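Morning. Coffee machine broken again, so started the prediction first thing and wrote up yesterday's gels while waiting. Chain of 260 residues, entered below exactly as on the submission form.
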Amino acid sequence: MADGARPGVLVTRPADQSTQLCRLLEEAGCTPLLLPTLAIEPLAIAEPTATLRAALPCDLAIFISANAVRHALPVIAAAGGLPAQCRVAAVGAASAAALRAAGFGDVLVPDTRFDSEGLLALPELDAVADRSVVIFRGEEGRRLLAQTLAARGAQVHEVVCYRRRTAVDQAPRLVAWLAAGAIAVLTATSRAGYESLLELAGPHLSKLADLPLAVLAPALAEHARTRGHRGPIASAESATDAALAAAVQRLIAGPRNTHC
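Came back before lunch.
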């Protein structure tokens, strides 16, 4: 539980992906309040493998998250691998790091804005007419990449290789922290995770909407506003745990230090 000297920061990443962020928050004088809003589950491999095989050979493979990398690798192996000439791209720094760790050396990644909009702004994704593009993603994710690339003339194939579900067992913990005033700052790193946070809050949603919120990308800040978030929002300057922890610190310092 947080105290007045160490503000409580709600960490909503999946439990196995939150260690570094929690450490950074502790070093910054905060108390991490771990509440994984999503459970990530792999899908049966047969269908995504068949989808990928039908898409090969491809010119570009896009991974929308580190989870997409993790769950796409067995699918890629089952399909016989990606062609040698296939370029790989990642939406953010975490997914790019996961690709490099898996042996992909030349990863296309945005320089500044780490989201679908940032990736689409790169010149390499502008001239895609008649090129075959594979997007590895989860169920019910944003389809902006697929829709925009198709509009630019690409042949787009979406390989859905994992699912997200709301971790409903976390609701009592969230409600208790809200009731006790233990949360000074919320964090959100994906649209799906943010939506699950809203679901977990239930009838206490109004109290949640007034809290400061640190997010990993400007698109997520914009989405939170459309969903009724009233508190100050700060966007991380890059899609890294260190940048997200810095955004939290700006919120704690006061609303003049936020970006939105």
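The longest strand covers residues 155-166. Going to sketch it on the whiteboard this afternoon.
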